[in-house]
Design a protein that fits this description.
- By secondary structure, the chain is mainly α.
- It folds into two domains: 2-103; 111-197, no CATH class.
- The protein is built from eleven helices and no strands.
- It has helices at residues 2-7, 13-16, 22-32, 43-65, 68-103, 111-134, 138-156, 160-164, 168-172, 183-188, 191-197.
Length: 199
């Protein structure tokens, strides 16, 4: 709004959402995202989403007031937004994001570091389990839960949310992969995976 008011003094958000002002808003979107010294590559996309919501709000207010001109302005502005925003504002930001991803090298932790980390986690789990059996305290329980979660994440190579949402009951009622009912599953595995599944 501040940048828009440099060109259109004392304009409101509702007045700005008109097809005539779309090119001005595109220029503002570029200024805030890619056309600056340190580009903010996701800002253009965020502005586009916010403008779509503003169009919907303006349309709803206009329907309630029976203001046909404002309804038409909101609809036409949103149509322009849907058809031109990505190509005029987001396109160059998306290209830069993809270029950065290609240039960014993903660092994989060393096996020795993972082994040391695993030993550290297991040692703390054993220590805290013993401490909890001798003297149950909430603080010890919380620490133990965090270490167990770390161990599960590391073992399963899963996202944190998947492990966090795992319930004790779900774990206890998990299917037994070694039962006769699951022979079909074992046949689908490679020999190495079959060997690992037995461990």
């Amino acid at each position: 709004m501040l940048l828009a008011r440099e060109s259109l003094p004392s304009t409101s958000m509702s007045e700005l959402i008109k097809p005539d002002n779309f090119d001005l808003i595109v220029e503002i979107g570029k200024k805030l995202s890619t056309d600056k010294e340190k580009p903010a590559l996701n800002v253009g996309k965020s502005i586009g989403h916010l403008l779509a919501k503003v169009c919907d709000s303006k349309y709803c207010v206009a329907v309630r007031k029976r203001d046909n001109q404002s309804q038409e302005d909101a609809t036409n502005f949103k149509k322009l937004l849907e058809t031109e925003w990505n190509s005029r504002v987001n396109h160059s930001a998306l290209r830069q994001i993809q270029a950065e991803k290609r240039q960014h090298q993903q660092v994989i932790p060393l096996t020795e570091d993972l082994r040391m980390f695993r030993e550290h986690i297991l040692q703390n789990i054993r220590q805290l389990s013993g401490k909890l059996k001798k003297r149950p305290e909430p603080e010890t329980w919380v620490k133990l839960a965090k270490y167990v979660m770390c161990r599960l994440i590391m073992f399963n190579k899963r996202r944190r949310a998947e492990v966090r949402e795992l319930k004790v009951q779900d774990y206890l009622t998990r299917p037994s992969w070694t039962s006769d009912n699951n022979n079909e599953m074992a046949l689908a595995l490679s020999p190495v995976d079959r060997l690992l599944a037995k461990r």
